[in-house]
Amino acid sequence: MRIVHYINQYFAGVGGEEEAGRGPELREEAVGPGKRLQSLIGDEHEIVATVFCGDDYAAGTAEAAEEILSLTDDHDPELVVAGPAFTSGRYGVACSAVVAAAHERGLKAIASMHEDNPGLQDAGAAPVIESGESARRMKGTIERLAAAVQKLAAGEHLGEEDGRISRPRRVNVLADAPAAARAVELVLARLGGDTERTELRPPDFDQVTPAGPVEDLSEASVALVTEGGLVPAGNPDGLESSRATLWLRYSLEGRDSLPEGEFESVDGGFSTEAANEDPDRMVPLDVARELEQEGAIGRLHPEYLVTTGNGTAVASAKHFGVEWAVELHKAEVQAAILTAPGSPPSS
Amino acid sequence: MGAPRIVRTRGIPFPTGDPSLDSEEEREWRRQLIDKALEALSTSVSGPTVFDPAGEAQPA
To answer: Which terminal CB of chain A, N or C, has fewer other CB atoms within 10 Å?
Structure first.
């Protein structure tokens, strides 16, 4: 089978963060992790091309996945492999976009990433196989991916036993007992010490590896971002009051504060009276401008980013986080202050 | 929730304010919060850490 492999700029060996903005390029050979993959999938399958792309470009450009696939048109791919992306957010988002687009085109497609990767939910119907957390786990990760590629190429179904972590399509089945009886049975199992059995796995709240400290704030560009649903009065772009599916950006240029009547919070999770009376209570522009004028920070980023945190799915929030990181990274912002309506953490 | 640097504030609906204060006091309180946020951004942390605007940093 003719295979195209997608990787990022780092694994292609063309550079790190400084190359994250570069667009897609194609090589007519296996590159980086693709070499090991090729050696494992045998002679009947061939990686006919590798496409690589900078992470910022791939995760931050709406048409990137189509652009990546269109580069491969002359190579007649039958199967597209993306990754492994490990826990790298932008890379995972890009891998999922590529395999989802490939699947849409009727190609076989498969990605590899860690289960905490925010890109996981974007792969559509294409299978995603679990990778280790980082490239230190490359060997086992590639072996698992190679086995899955062979099965997929053979037209077989991939399931949990193959390391599949993306949700298979939901199918309706008739349970052998009503929900109430199953719930009681699960409670009894829990009381009996079985803490694993469930019909509905709750989302994981993973820990974020802290970024290093900003060395010199007086030289740094700092952004204000919020999950408090603060938008221009009238909510012109239709931000949701709960379970947000989008985020927005609004200019702060020429403003020294956010006046009452011009901005409002649409968050449905708390009383917005205080925030609407003085929107600086949600996005502290007045003080941030003061600190910029005093030189305590180098520059205030000229727009704020906003979504609604109320009831928003963890997977969506992770996804917004990756997109915000791409945005701010592109704009050379070094630090962000996120204001979050929420109860004060207890000590 | 796993956020590395957290500044403790006073209430859900007004993360960077406090409507119980008069406007000058509230502005000072907001300044204190953002000063603390900048201090947090300049501080090395190894896991979720709460910065109390009136006190020392402590693990979350």
So the answer is: C
